[in-house]
Amino acid sequence: MTSFTKLSDQDAPVISVHPSRRISKINPNIYAGFTEHMGRCIYGGIYDPGNPLSDENGFRKDVLGALKDLNVPVVRYPGGNFCATYHWLDGVGPKDQRPARPELAWLGTETNQFGTDEFMKWCEVLDTEPYLCFNFGTGTLDEALGWLEYCNGTGNTYYANLRRKNGREEPYNVKYWALGNETWGPWQVEQMTKEAYAHKALQWAKALKLLDPSIVLILCGQDGTASWDYYTLKHCLLPAHSALSTSAVPLIDMHSIHLYTCSNSHLPNATAPLAAERAIEITSSLIDLARIENGVPPSQLRPTICFDEWNVWDPIRAEGSQGAEESYTLSDALAVAVWLNVFVRKSRDLGMACIAQSVNVISPLMTTKDKIIKQTTWWPLYLFSKFMRGWTISAHVSCGTYEGETAPKWLRGTVDTPWLDVSASLGEDGYANLAVVNIHEEKGFETAVEGIVGTAQVFTVTGGDVMATNMKETEEVRVEESTWDGSGKYVFPKHSLTLLRWKAE
């Protein structure tokens, strides 16, 4: 948690960090990934058979290496909007017998050469957990139960035996399952009303948990600020053994929300992720409200929020049906850093967050046939995933604020937008970490930093200007390492992310 005091721009900023004041545990799953059958994410991204850079499974080794550097704990699959017409049985068994299908989400053809078993193998090589999303569009409950049985079944039953026939004896033990994706959206095949979705989600959840009570089921929310979120939580967060739920375990474990931010103007772009912070706060309150109204006992585990799609994305400049390949700038990298600050600050409420997506599609990683490119947004993700783990700790910021327009517009009247956006953590190794994003385009801030003891490692991400990019054959934005003796004031450079790291007393 980071508190804030507004100063005039003429006053010197102060940041106070308190490593002894642990606020909440940071779930490693906030650094999760997302792969969808969209553009070049799967084919030509994580899966590229015949390419010299691929292994014997057809997996791009450079992509695997980069994702291993992030220590990605969970990866969501197979979408996304793609889920609404995806039939998992098309993607298992002999590849020469798999049907090619029209794909309606992104208006392409799905060859089904990469499916459940390939994804599970890829997760095994990456050493990450799978997170699967059920087809709530053209799919059926029988089909969903079959997929769960195929992945997790241990008995002498049809789909468990089909998995064995396809070469996998032991179950995959998939823990995380989503009850559909963005079913509220007009772009969805089989778009639903909130009433229809809540009824269907609850009925599916009952059946799925009868088959495997150990799974984590994730309710499909909207953006956390919508009546959809209130209604679905109100009708689906029920006490175990209630009239609509005879299950001995809660049916719903997490509530998903999605949000993308962007602006072609730097300051609205860099401050836009603060909308996600407010959305998390509202969703958390709606979870509490549903539990209170439905009489859920305090002993029943409180659901967390699954922010399973987030990123900087302008769907006009990077159209989904054209592959959604963004060319990110330093401004976008700073926005991603603010996104990650939000996740650390709100760690009490977050059980997972999945950047959309892991490669090529609105991604920090881009592949060509012979190399991989780390975009500007890679560097904040790398620093946070490497260092901002363990516990969120108390911090306080006193500084001036940006007072201009915001995107979305409602943000201006809802939260402060300080020049210095801050989060702090304490790792299990005893090191404290302070992440500071200076969003100002022209001004560095000489800042008193209270709470640092001894010498600090310094990691700085910046570039020549906010439009700097790594997609022009040169790496204009990267991380620079240095040290600071902790004395005097520290100058946070203009348009930069700075991570200070020191051994806490």
Give a structural overview.
The strands form four sheets. Strands 1, 2, 15, 16, 17, 18, 19, 20, 21 and 22 form a ten-stranded mixed beta sheet that branches. An eight-stranded parallel beta sheet has the order 3-4-7-8-9-10-11-12. It is built from ten helices and 22 strands. The relative contact order is 0.16. It has a single domain (27-389), classed as Glycosidases (TIM Barrel, Alpha-Beta Barrel). It has 505 residues and is α/β, with parallel strands linked by helices. β9, α6 and β10 form a beta-alpha-beta unit. α9 (330-345) packs parallel to α10 (378-387). Its EC number is 3.2.1.55.
* Poorly predicted residue ranges: none
For this structure, the CATH topology is TIM Barrel
Radius of gyration, in angstroms, nearest whole number? 23 Å
Number of strands: 22
The structural class is: alpha/beta
What overall geometry do the principal axes of the alpha carbons give?
A: globular
How many helix segments? Answer: 10
Mean pLDDT value: 97
Q: What top-tier CATH class fits best?
A: Alpha Beta
**Through-space gap between termini:** 20 Å
Summed up, the domain count is 1
What is the name of the CATH superfamily?
Glycosidases
The assigned CATH architecture is Alpha-Beta Barrel
Main β-sheet: number of strands, strand sense, barrel status? 10 strands, mixed
